[in-house]
Amino acid sequence: MTLIKRALCASLLLMGSTAFAAGPAPTVKNLRVYVLDCGTIDVSDISVFSPGVDVGQKKKLTDSCYLIAHPKGTLMWDTGFSDELATMAEGKKVSENFHVYLKKPVAAQLKEIGVAPESVNFLGLSHMHFDHIGNVGLFPKATLLMQKEEYESAFGPDAAKFGNDAKNYPTLGANPNQQLTGDFDVFGDGTVVIKREPGHTPGHQGLFLKLKKTGNVMLSGDLAHFTKNWENKRVPSFNFDKDMSLKSMEEIAAFNKANKAKFWIQHDLEQNEKIKHAPKYYE
After folding, report:
1. DSSP track, 132-190
2. What is the DSSP letter of 51?
3. Cα 191 to Cα 70: distance, rounded to the nearest angstrom
4. Cβ 222 vs Cβ 200: under 8 Å
5. How far is CA 15 from CA 84, 132, 143, 172, in A?
6. Which of 149, 157, 191, 200 has the most neighbouring CB atoms within 10 Å?
């Protein structure tokens, strides 16, 4: 376990667990995805994501999460930084290399589209790093969909070895859960499919969406953090397994090509600025 990863996982897990009064999830005829702004990250040395490359260079990343509305139910994909961060005007420095911000609480963004967190059916987490699980407490009734290895890294006896501490996600262990051992078709019709992508963490995963009007989209998780690293297949210094990471990159690149899928990199600020955000949506 690297010092960087320990700092990342231990520094900011302020759980946003307060629910609000809102209507049930929207009833839709076609698959719909809302892109939420779940935070911003100022990185002082971007080479942590590409060892030996861009040493000392600064970069701003975004932190995206998504609400997927399907005729059969809803899925929240990642939950970003804790909503409590939005009360900190200057953001929070979580390590020597990372300063994080949140402009608008995720709960408020969901309220704008008429979604009560308690009505969400499924909670899909790409992995257990702090910038993807900050608001899991908003969704205590949702069935957690997670690769078996990732679940064990979060709740097993060796959780600390992976930089995880259940005190930082105290409600998540009580969620109903389905532990996965590979790809998983969430609604059974091929339109929302969790793709197994181990390497960044033991059970890292991405999400494939088959949108009727927009076309196919793959949500990256942290398979890559920005376009240049994706194109050059660079592996962050703090990944769980480099070889596994490279294999997952190759497999998803081939899958994207075969399915003509757009690749939405969840942390890529420049790409994300060209994507419309909630309350607008893609379908």
Report:
1. GSTTGGG-TTSEEEEEHHHHHHHHSTTGGGGT--GGGSTTGGGS-EEEESS-EESSSSS
2. T
3. 9
4. yes
5. 7, 12, 18, 11
6. 200
The domain total for the chain is 1
Neighbours of 195 (CB within 10 A): 20
CA–CA distances in Å: residue 24 to residues 20, 83, 97, 142: 12, 21, 40, 13
Is 230 in a helix, a strand, or coil? helix
**Phi and psi torsions of 151, nearest 5°:** -60, -45
End-to-end CA distance of the chain: 40
CA distance 5 to 143: 27
pTM to 2 decimal places = 0.91
The DSSP code for 106 is H
Q: What is the CATH number of the domain that holds 254?
A: 3.60.15.10
Q: Which token pair is 114? A: 């008429």
Nearest to 275, CA basis, from 267, 259, 264, 283: 264
Please report where in the chains the tokens 């059969």 appear, as a residue. Answer: 72
Task: Tell me how far apart the alpha carbons of residues 185 and 254 are, in angstroms, rounded to a whole number.
Answer: 19
Is residue 279, in this structure, part of any structural domain at all? Answer: no
Does some domain include residue 282?
Answer: no
Which residues constitute the domain of residue 177? Answer: 3-272
